[in-house]
Amino acid sequence: QPEVMVQIESTLDAMAAGGMYDQLGGGFHRYATDEAWLIPHFEKTLYDNAQLARCYLHAWQATGKPRYRAVVEETLDYLQREMRHPDGGFFSAEDADFDGREGAYYVWTLEELHAALPAEDVELIATTYGVTAQGHLEGASVLHLVADSGEVDDRLQAARAALLASRRKRGRPLRDDKILAGWNGMALAALAEAGRALQSERYIAAAEATGEFLLRDLVRPGHRLYHSWKDGRAAGNGFLDDYACLVEGLLALYQATFQERWFIAARRLADSMVESFRRPAGGFYDTSSDHEALITRPRSLQDSPTPCGNSISATVLLKIAAFTGEGRYWTLAEQTLAPMGLLLERAPLAFGQWLW
User: Fold this and answer.
1) Is 74 left (phi over 0), alpha (psi -120 to 50) or beta?
2) CA distance 301 to 283
3) So what's the pLDDT on residue 150?
4) Chain-centre distance of CA 170, in angstroms?
5) Is the pTM of this model over 0.85?
């Protein structure tokens, strides 16, 4: 539908040009606080960036726009540069606050530009990224793309690199260094898909390192999954979305490499998920059968910033059914999807993964 693509591209263009996107270091902040999408809440999360990298990758595949590919690469490079544990997993988030103020790490004054750049580059950066004397936050400006400087791409790239190096001297925002199974499954899927689509051995290697880490340190005997890992210690029963997201990431890695071991691991985890989370009336509970006792066993259906466990479970079961030709996976997915039709009609924006 042409009108749908117009809406999609307008949204993606505005997000990538606005203050939600880190114009120097790549990656997205969590959300905008204004209608112009200029002033973000400056926290960066793994789940946002993993999902948005895939979104822009799919948009690049559909449209061929170079800007979308650049956003994919800059976002994945940010995750590997700033959010990756040396063993291969990814941390959860970076804080919005720095030096006692939200966003202080990311914003710039004209005086700071003059201190970091040659005089001839200050006007280029200020004009391209909207840095003004009055600024947006206490006299400092949020970088956002306001002018196309295509004729000086090389010079602009060099100025951006110099500015990024200067910013890194400020230190770093505090980081939530938990490694969560589900969010890492999303990052694994993004890296593997990008590696395949962009023919990038670098991203495939990063995906393989992530897959190795997750299978080694977050999977326990019986193909059961831990929820989190920190400082060498895994803890907590995995939730439904942990299993389903990791299965999706492993399937993407299998499609990128055609190494059977990744598919075998994905299928074993999916079978364990069905055994431990299946609801007799169809679909799945959010907690496993051996989870700590709760007043009621939760079952989430609405997709929010991340897909709910049931929607992503249906997705991976359909994929495994297609790979194996085994009807039992198709039946499980169908039973999960069956009750959702009326809800999707009433509130489609609350059920993004279900619609996908």
Assistant:
1) alpha
2) 10
3) 46
4) 25
5) yes
